[in-house]
């Protein structure tokens, strides 16, 4: 009678001696082949998920010789990668905070600052046609609405609502600016983009401030997700696509995600809201 301390089962039509040896070794050291299979399947699914979330890629080889490109937030993250690609600030969910001018920080930095900068450069842009303006918004705009009665959120601050409102403002501003440009000049386009969920320093305020315990909880909550986020190079692709793709020369007033036009939220399609935001912004930054 033979004694068989280890049994190896396989669903394969044939089994080589090397396969048996590997399975035997894994069982001998306490590792189940089934467990290994589960890990491999899980790793494959995570890889596929990351590939899916990476989104579209800009394949245009268009040259920018003789062109001038102005990028805000070009020192790190998506802005840096956009600048790097075209050459070869943004704030997110921060605690209640005001700019030096007294504006709610996210609305002030993410919308009003860009609104004013665009206005100050507009005459130069109009004299430099063809020209393209790209506003970096976010999918977060789809879960937000404009708090017209308390745009600065002085009555009750919620960092996620404030961020979403600022990103919705980006899309509304894009829509209204496009409408106005069509009436006065040809050859200047403006579009908004969602770069994707990107692992950059922009999300530094998502972590809960305070005790060490709260920081650890936030770290545990968010860190496992970072692996499936886009990296800054991938996050820059839609911006680059809108900036250089020849076929988009006359495309304006749209919202892009993964290098393709996408339908924004219903709130973002409200022309009355876009005009109201424009008038409010003009007054807030002192252009009247």
Topology:
Layout: H1 17-28, H2 33-53, H3 77-87, H4 105-126, E1 131-136, H5 159-184, E2 188-194, H6 212-226, H7 232-235, H8 237-244, E3 255-257, E4 260-262, H9 271-284
Parallel strand pairs: 1-2, 2-3
Antiparallel strand pairs: 3-4
Helix pairs in contact: 4-5, 5-9
Main beta sheet: 4 strands, mixed
Taking pLDDT < 50 over at least 5 consecutive residues as the criterion, the unreliable ranges are 1-22, 86-90
| Estimated share of beta-strand residues | 5-15%
Mean pLDDT: 77
Order of helices and strands: HHHHEHEHHHEEH
Defining key terms:
288 residues, 7% strand, alpha/beta, globular, 4-stranded mixed sheet, disordered N terminus, single chain, 4 strands
Question: Could you characterize the architecture of this molecule?
Answer:
The structure is a single chain. By secondary structure, the chain is an alpha/beta fold. It has nine helices and four strands; from the N terminus they run ααααβαβαααββα. It has helices at residues 17-28, 33-53, 77-87, 105-126, 159-184, 212-226, 232-235, 237-244, 271-284; strands at 131-136, 188-194, 255-257, 260-262. A four-stranded mixed β-sheet has the order 1-2-3-4, with helices on both faces. β3 (255-257) and β4 (260-262) form a beta hairpin. The radius of gyration is 25 Å and the shape is globular. It holds the Pfam family adh_short.
